[in-house]
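Below is one such record:
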Amino acid sequence: KSANPQWREQFDFHYFSDRRDMLDIEVRRKDNKKHEELLGTCHVDITALPTKQTNCLELPLEKHPGSLLMLIAVAPCTGVSISDLCVCPLGDPNERQQISQRYCIKNSFRDIKDIGFLQVKVLKAVDLMAADFSGKSDPFCVLELGNDMLQTHTVYKNLNPEWNKVFTFPIKDIHDVLEVTVFDEDGDKPPDFLGKVAIPLLSV
């Protein structure tokens, strides 16, 4: 019930060199749980923004009245990675020893914000639901931790996909929950939900 909403939400997007340079933003209005109306869109060219500083942007909505006020900071991505199983970032014993030393009890108050890392190896899924008329699915896996989100590639026409990917996240809050969701890619349409598990970090 507001024409001047304030969200004050922060989201972290991991920008890799092989991704698109444009940040696409949509503003939508909900009438009820089923109906949404598009109130406007805007786009930000990430490559045009100065790095290592917070950029305050007022973005007019295209073909609609109103504007969006945002703070966008482009900074080097540290601690986050996606790799194949054979080149696991923490697989080297020397590196694991350095990590153990860095997070030992005597160093726990050296940097309060540096809690640690979470490494997830996404191997495969078994007996997924068939989402397509062909009796198959085009599954991919999304991992969410706090406001961090990473995803695997899509394995097409397969109910037993193997991804064999390693995801490394920096932990910002030990009370966060890792959510792992499997979707079926559906072209230009929103992906279909195939299943989900939630793992509290305190249970690991």
Summary: DSSP finds one helix and eleven strands in the chain. The longest helix spans residues 93-102.
